[in-house]
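Sample A.
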Amino acid sequence: MVEIVDPKKTETVLDPACGTAGFLISSYKHILKVNMDDKCNSTLTPDERGRLAQNFKGYDIWGRMSIVDTKVLFMLPVNRH
């Protein structure tokens, strides 16, 4: 699904039924992957990485799940070499 949607680093990713945040996490990893050079170094600037973390929104019927999902995103590595 993420490859079809192909989220960009400047776009906001919204999952209105985020559950365990699978779509949000996959979207984050996809953006990191497509923003790497031939040597697998990130091409994202520090400012872009900071904004990227703010571009993910998730909602769920059970409000506490969304809080957990957001914390999961912050545990992912931002700078992968």
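Sample B, a different protein:
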Amino acid sequence: MASVMRGVSATVGCVLAASLAACDSGSATVDHATPPPATQPSNANPSDRVSTSAVRPGPPTFTVVMSGDVLLHEGLWATARNDARREGRRGMDFRRILAGMRPDIAGADLAICHLETPLAPKGGPYSGYPVFAVPPAIVPALAWAGYDACTTASNHTLDQGFEGLRRTLRLLDAHGLAHAGSASTKADAKQPLLLDANGVRVALISETYGTNGIPIPSAQPWSVPIIDVQTIEHRAQLARQEGAQVVIVALHWGDEYVHQPSAYQTDIARQLAQDDDIDLIYGHHAHVVQPFDRIHGTWVAYGLGNAVAQQETDMIGVWEGITARFTFTERPGGRFAVTRTAFIPTFISSYHPANPRMRWLNIPESLEDNSISDDEKQQMRAALTRIKADVNMLHARSFGLMMGR
């Protein structure tokens, strides 16, 4: 797991508290001390803890995983409330929704989520599409799942104004999750986020194409970074000066529900890939899986699809996504490079109002799970076929892209 190398104004009291419920209404008590088996099934007990320690001979190396949009709709709230009720608790518990992917997330040296929407105040009111204000109980669940940081620059960042932006970042801080993208102070907006991944200093940069027409506050023009090549390159250069050994750029971009990268995406990617300070580019927003590519030697994952969402639309592909996993290894001369690139295909189980049990599932592992219905496995097989075609649309397999588990 990674550690933060610059101040993110974290409120350590909540992190150290015995009960996460003391920090956020509706969140469940989590045991952070009990190590579990190295892997666990999709129905694993959320009180278990995934162990990630390992001894690695050879040159310095680290793994980083990043997943698609965390886009909370009403069905996910209902599931979280139902899961808490099953355990005899009040409020919401999002951990069982995320449990199927927890070994993959917590097993990486650095794990990055994309929290697309702002958090509502404790107790609500909550709202979904088109103007989001989502339950804050998702934050301790993301930390429990193993995420180290979240990107927060998106078209929904200002759905609840600057106060919603600030509230979201405060809650991430309170639960020990670093964040890149939106900023609540001018000083934070200028300071690059540096994370320690197995002893390697990694910078994370996050920007968005826009904010759905909501004006960026005139008093806080630095609060939401809009995609600009020169600005990103400047941030990358500054991160290197601050000691970053690897720079990762996350962009909220592209056309919704379109698997093919747009001309805007490919143009931005080509420009950034030529910058020696930038090592990896990836994106969100399309809500469907988009291809991988390698441009000027730099890997680009154009769109990771949805991690967890409930988009009730006729568009095919919104119930599936990928978690990308990159391995960086130090080369002679001290520069780190990607030496292994993989994607883990994922699936969001359906929402049933009478018995909400939505789950984020690792497809290859779930296809071997006897507790999952044949109908759902058939849906996952179809999703897997689509995902394999989508990620290889630009022939990334010829560059070494592999499917993980």
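Observation for Sample B: The first helix runs from residue 12 to 16.
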